[in-house]
């Protein structure tokens, strides 16, 4: 689940006076310098791309956030951005104008225009899509400050140019502005030198970082609390938006409503209570979830462990604790505890939580099929297309809840506008999900993928088209492993008489490759097993209500409706084409 990102958004009303509070601990160091950098940049000419350095702040390493504020009068109130070490996400601080009572709908465009933004994680999938959407729909945006890890200004500018300005996602903006495109982009984008955007605290293996319990707790549980602590010190706060994941619902079954978590809530205990009512038995005594105790235990354990065993032990601890309390893995467990921290300590702050399911390539905007990196289901589909995965461990009827990234961005912007214009103290939860209104199953995903790869086959190193078979699904790990071992051996030429006729050295080499391939495929199947047999469907009633409040023009500009998506068309003609363009250089 490492592909699912984390985000926060704060909304403010502008003020003539500075809204910067006095900060404590390490947060003070970062925010005062961030304010200096951004405010100084705003005083420069509108076309300036000058940057300022921002030092790392260790205590903020769990955050990923973007802020925006109103600076229409130049010299008005300035708002301090919070910062993050995770580059996977995007959030915000907003200074909306007063809502126009005569305007139809929510007033999203009025809310967006004329604002300045501070964004961390700016090179990630969701952040880029958000930046593109803002600049395309609100071109009079004043500035978008991008926190960039770089050794100096020149390197920061080069990263912004190569990873954002020259990114194919922005092709529509380039077409609109023509020869002036780069000037337009660099008049809006202001890189701010800092070293807090390194993915997963500098750990290069994303998957490893999300499974190490102490790291995941720091990023997903303590991080939201740190930013919330900052938000409480900000005057005239209008909204705090946090992007979580729909899979914080863990092992819940059936239709799962959009309800916030309360501190110490355990899904295992919840399921045991339901079972006891059904079976007319007393509830079993289960361990109580104490979020602060989990943080303390993990911190102490990592100190006591030897360096060469710490990573493995912390991964095992995280998975054990997650499953004990009713979550399928460390990532979603720590994300759920992050939501508990927000709900328990939000106080007077109006909070909005966005829970997207599995984020995949764009459906329509800015063009169909754009994706960055390999998302949750993509490694499985690519292995299938390469002919390496003829079978899989999964329930063909299990739901696969997918949402295109442009739909997530549109929901974020719409919800942010609604609750920024009319803030309230209710904790609002939006599940951006498809499994209830437009269900898709595991069997259908493989069926549609088969249709695609049969029509548009991948090629091997000899430029030969790879032929695939219809996916065979198994409910037993042992049966799956035996089948895969047979098929991989067959593909490697290790069946029957060919074994005896091979050169011993060559045979050993092939056997080693075969063993490694088998181990990797079985590992992947076990990793995805909780999701391949998932029994929950995510309700999105609040998103439906949000759509009902939007005007026809807003619905056309910020489409959220997943109900009428044609999944076969999406996989066959959009997503897999985009995935191959992104990862396989034209399908190879």
Automatic annotation (TrEMBL):
Q: Which SUPFAM superfamilies match?
A: NAD(P)-binding Rossmann-fold domains
* Residue ranges of domain Fatty acyl-CoA reductase C-terminal in the record: 512-584
UniProt cross-references to Gene3D superfamilies, sorted A to Z? NAD(P)-binding Rossmann-like Domain
Q: Name one Pfam family in it.
A: Sterile
Q: Looking at the record's lineage, which domain of life comes first? A: Eukaryota
> What EC identifiers does the entry list?
1.2.1.84
Q: Which GO terms describe its molecular function?
A: alcohol-forming long-chain fatty acyl-CoA reductase activity; alcohol-forming very long-chain fatty acyl-CoA reductase activity
**Reaction catalysed by this enzyme:** a long-chain fatty acyl-CoA + 2 NADPH + 2 H(+) = a long-chain primary fatty alcohol + 2 NADP(+) + CoA
Q: Which InterPro entries match?
A: FAR, FAR_C, FAR_NAD-bd, NAD(P)-bd_dom_sf
Where is each Thioester reductase (TE) domain found?
A: 119-209, 212-412
GO terms under biological process: long-chain fatty-acyl-CoA metabolic process; suberin biosynthetic process
Which UniProt keywords are present, listed alphabetically?
Lipid biosynthesis, Lipid metabolism, NADP, Oxidoreductase
What is stated as this protein's family in its record?
A: Belongs to the fatty acyl-CoA reductase family.
What's the stated role of this polypeptide?
Catalyzes the reduction of fatty acyl-CoA to fatty alcohols.
- The protein's name in its UniProt record: Fatty acyl-CoA reductase
According to the entry, what is the taxonomic lineage of the organism?
Answer: Eukaryota, Viridiplantae, Streptophyta, Embryophyta, Tracheophyta
């Amino acid at each position: 689940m490492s592909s699912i990102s984390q985000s926060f958004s704060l909304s403010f009303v502008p003020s003539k006076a500075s809204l910067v509070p006095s900060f404590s601990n390490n947060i003070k160091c970062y925010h005062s310098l961030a304010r200096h950098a951004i405010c100084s940049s705003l005083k420069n000419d509108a076309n300036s791309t000058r940057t300022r350095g921002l030092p790392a702040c260790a205590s903020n390493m769990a955050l990923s956030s973007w802020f925006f504020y109103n600076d229409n009068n130049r010299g008005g109130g300035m708002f301090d951005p919070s910062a993050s070490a995770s580059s996977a996400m995007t959030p915000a601080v907003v200074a909306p104008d007063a809502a126009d009572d005569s305007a139809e709908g929510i007033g999203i465009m009025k809310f967006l225009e004329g604002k300045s933004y501070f964004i961390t994680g700016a090179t990630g999938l969701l952040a880029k899509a958000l930046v593109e959407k803002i600049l395309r729909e609100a071109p009079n945006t004043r500035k978008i400050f991008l926190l960039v890890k770089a050794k100096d200004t020149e390197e920061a500018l080069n990263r912004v140019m190569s990873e954002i300005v020259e990114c194919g996602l922005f092709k529509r903006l380039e077409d609109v502005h023509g020869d002036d495109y780069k000037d337009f982009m660099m008049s809006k984008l202001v890189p701010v030198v800092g070293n807090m955007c390194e993915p997963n605290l500098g750990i290069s293996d994303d998957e490893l970082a999300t499974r190490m319990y102490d790291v995941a707790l720091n990023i997903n549980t303590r991080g939201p609390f740190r930013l919330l602590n900052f938000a409480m010190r900000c005057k005239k706060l209008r909204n705090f938006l946090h992007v979580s994941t729909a899979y914080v619902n863990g092992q819940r079954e059936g239709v799962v409503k959009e309800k916030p978590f309360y501190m110490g809530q355990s899904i295992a205990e919840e399921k045991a209570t339901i079972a006891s009512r059904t079976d007319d038995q007393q509830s079993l005594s289960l361990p109580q979830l104490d979020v602060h105790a989990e943080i303390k235990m993990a911190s102490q354990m990592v100190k006591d462990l030897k360096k060469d065993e710490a990573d493995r032990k912390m991964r095992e601890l995280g998975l054990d604790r997650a499953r004990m309390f009713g979550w399928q893995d460390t990532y979603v467990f720590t994300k759920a505890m992050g939501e508990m921290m927000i709900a328990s300590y939000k106080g007077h702050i109006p909070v909005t939580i966005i829970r997207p399911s599995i984020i995949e390539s764009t459906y329509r905007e800015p063009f169909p099929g754009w994706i960055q990196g390999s998302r949750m289901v993509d490694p499985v589909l690519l292995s299938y297309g390469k002919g390496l995965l003829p079978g899989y461990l999964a329930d063909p009827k299990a739901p696969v809840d997918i949402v295109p990234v442009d739909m997530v961005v549109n929901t974020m912007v719409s919800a942010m506008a609604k609750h920024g214009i009319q803030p309230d103290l209710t904790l609002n939860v939006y599940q951006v999900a498809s499994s209830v209104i437009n269900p898709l199953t595991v069997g259908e995903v493989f069926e549609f993928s088969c249709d695609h790869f049969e029509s548009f086959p991948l090629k091997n190193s000899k430029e030969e088209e790879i032929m695939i078979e219809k996916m065979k699904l198994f409910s037993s790990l042992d049966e799956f492993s035996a089948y895969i071992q047979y098929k991989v051996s067959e593909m490697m030429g290790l069946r029957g008489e060919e074994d005896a006729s091979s050169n011993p050295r060559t045979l050993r080499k092939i056997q080693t490759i075969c063993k490694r391939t088998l181990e990797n495929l079985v590992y992947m199947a076990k990793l995805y097993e909780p999701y391949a047999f998932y029994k929950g469907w995510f309700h999105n009633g609040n998103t439906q209500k949000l759509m009902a409040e939007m005007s026809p023009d807003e619905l056309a500009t910020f489409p959220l409706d997943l109900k009428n998506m044609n999944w076969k068309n999406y996989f066959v003609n959009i997503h897999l084409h985009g995935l191959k363009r992104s990862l396989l250089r034209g399908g190879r």
